[in-house]
Every structure is written in structure tokens, then in C-alpha cells.
Amino acid sequence: MNRDTSNSVNTQQDFSGEIVVSIENVNFAYELGGRQILSGLNMEFRRGQVVAVMGGSGCGKTTILRLIGGQFAAQSGQVLFEGADIGKMNSAELMAARRRMGMLFQFGALFTDLSVLENVAFPLREHTDLTEDLLRSLVLMKLNAVGLRGARDLMPSQISGGMARRVALARAIALDPPLIMYDEPFAGLDPISLGITARLIRDLNSALGATSLLVTHDVEETFEIADYVYFIANGRIGAQGTPEELSRSTDPFVRQFLDASPDGPVPFHYPGQTLEEDFGVKAQ
Ligand SMILES: Nc1ncnc2c1ncn2[C@@H]1O[C@H](COP(=O)(O)OP(=O)(O)OP(=O)(O)O)[C@@H](O)[C@H]1O
After folding, report:
1. Which residues form the ABC transporter domain (predicted)?
2. Residue 190 has what pLDDT?
3. Could you give the CA distance from residue 124 to residue 171 in angstroms, rounded to a whole number?
């Protein structure tokens, strides 16, 4: 399937916030493997928005986060963060840009030998010269925001998975970043923790006046909190729109996702050799 935005759910983003991240005509392939992962990709992330990036396994969602974080550079096109081209930054500029991005990785690992308080203090100790008193107050404010001020002295082994995710969230926002990127923030959470985490992502984004970029498979929770959703397929935007627009869509690609159907335009097989080439038989 080879789609672009022009034949997908046809909407214009009408959010007034300034553009924080802009992905313009990006083409990307990893050196290893050589397969084209992103092809002429265009996306915009505006201030104040919670934007979800969804799509099948291996379609390139995490790769998009890596290009924004500057871990990899696009072969062509631009990834702009606050107007500056991430791919052209030197290492000092990249470090400064990354300080303005909060990142919560899949299963947001905490440092197991540091207390909850010290986990959240970590980025502040790394990047600022705050006095101990000020640092402690800031950390307690972040822990308060995620409802875990009382858990400050516990070690990661003493808290639940849902609580650990909230501590990781507090750590991701410790430096008040204008951009927060979440890679599968709901993975492995029970339904209650999942709901709490989703609501926190929305509330923290509003409280910080930030932009949140969410890579996720969880349609229901995501559609509750996102302002805008991009569906990726074959390295391009397969569909985009507000959750309301997408929910009403009859596009087979969108429906396959929303209805979680195994059959549809999104292929089950990773691209590769044909059955005939591998087994010497013709597929029926
Ligand atoms: N460092 C790497 N080197 C080579 N290929 C890679 C590398 N990282 C990812 N890939 C490949 O790039 C493609 C996109 O990977 P990516 O992790 O961005 O997908 P994804 O949409 O986040 O998938 P999932 O939802 O399963 O996490 C995959 O086919 C993967 O095998």
C-alpha cells in the first residue's frame, strides 16, 4: 500500500500553537539492513498538543523518535526542533537540544540502586548547579505532580510497575522540557495504572505548556487524551486526524487499526523473499 496524506483522512491541523517539531520530506534507511524505513515523511508537532504516532510493528515509530533525538540523521529532508535542523547540529548543540527534550522509554527503567527521589534528581544533578535545597524542592514538586511525593525514600524494588512508570514520568519532566517523547508509555500496565498514566500525560502536558509525542499501540487510551493522531504505514502517513475524525473514518487502513482486525491493508509479514524463492513452491 502506498498512500500519502492527500488521500487519507483529509483534515488540516487548526491548532494555533507554534511548531515545536517539524519533519519535512524525511527519507531514512538504517545503514544495517538498507531497507527504506521512512519515505518522504512530513509531520508537525505543535506547542500544547498531545500527538500520538501509531502504526504496525516495525513501521518506523521509534525511528521517528530517534531522528528527533538526533541518535540518527535522515539521509534527506529535515527534522527541525524549535526551528533548528537536528541533523546539522554539532555535539554541543545536540546536547543542548536534548536537554529540552524529556524522554520516557519503553518500560522506563529506573536506576535500581537509587531511591525514587534520587532517580528524579538525576537529570537535575547532571544538567544544573542547583543547591541541594532547591533541587530537593523541585524533585518533590515533580513527585507531587505524579502523586508520589510520599514515596520519595523508597527504592525501585519497593514500588509497583505502575508507580515506577510514574517515577520515570517525573524524571522525564524534571528539567521542564518543552518536548516530551513517550515510547510505549502504557506497555505492561494494568488497566488502572494505564488510565492513571494516560491522564497524567495529558495533565502534565497542559501544566507544563509542553508538546507530548506518544508512540503507542493503545488506541482506546490514546484516543481519550490525544489532540491529533498520525497513523504510519510503509514509511509514510497512512492517515491522520483528530481522534473524533479517525473514529468516524471508513478508510480500511484506519478501520483495521481501530477494530484491531488481523486482516486488512497492514501486512502481517516483514518484507522479504517470496514463498516461491524460499520454499520453491508457488503460493496458493
Ligand atoms: N539500529 C537499527 N539498525 C537496523 N535496522 C533497525 C534498527 N532499529 C530498527 N531497525 C528496523 O527498522 C524498522 C523500524 O523499526 P522501529 O523500531 O522504528 O519500528 P516501530 O514502529 O517502533 O516498531 P514497534 O512498534 O514494533 O516497536 C524495523 O524493521 C526494524 O527492524
Report:
1. 21-259
2. 86
3. 9
> Phi/psi at 20 (nearest 5 deg)?
-95, -45
Ligand 1: atom nearest CA of 60 is 18
Distance 30 CA to ligand 1 centre (A): 9
What is the rounded (10 degree) CA torsion for 154, 157, 161, 163? Answer: 0
| pLDDT of residue 151 exceeding 60 | yes
Confidence grade of residue 7 (pLDDT, cut at 50, 70, 90): very low
**How far does the centroid of ligand 1 lie from the alpha carbon of residue 226, in Å?**
24
Own/partner pairs for 82-87, CB < 8 Å, 24+ apart? 82/20, 82/178
Q: Quote the ligand 1 centre to 16 CA distance (angstroms).
A: 33
Instruction: Give the integer Cα–Cα distance in Å for 109 and 96.
Output: 23
267 lines ligand 1 (CB under 6 A): no
pTM above 0.90, yes or no: no
**Best substitution site from 53, 63, 219, 222 to test ligand 1's pocket, by max atoms within 8 Å of Cβ?**
63
Cell of 160: 509497583
Domain positions in the chain: 19-108+177-263
State if residue 13 touches ligand 1 by the CB under 6 angstroms criterion.
Answer: no
Considering the four listed CATH numbers 1.10.10.10, 3.30.70.330, 3.40.50.300, 3.40.50.10380, the one that applies to the domain covering 19-108+177-263 is 3.40.50.300
CA distance 221 to 210: 20
In the prediction, which pLDDT does 141 show?
94
Determine the 3-state secondary structure of 161 from DSSP: helix
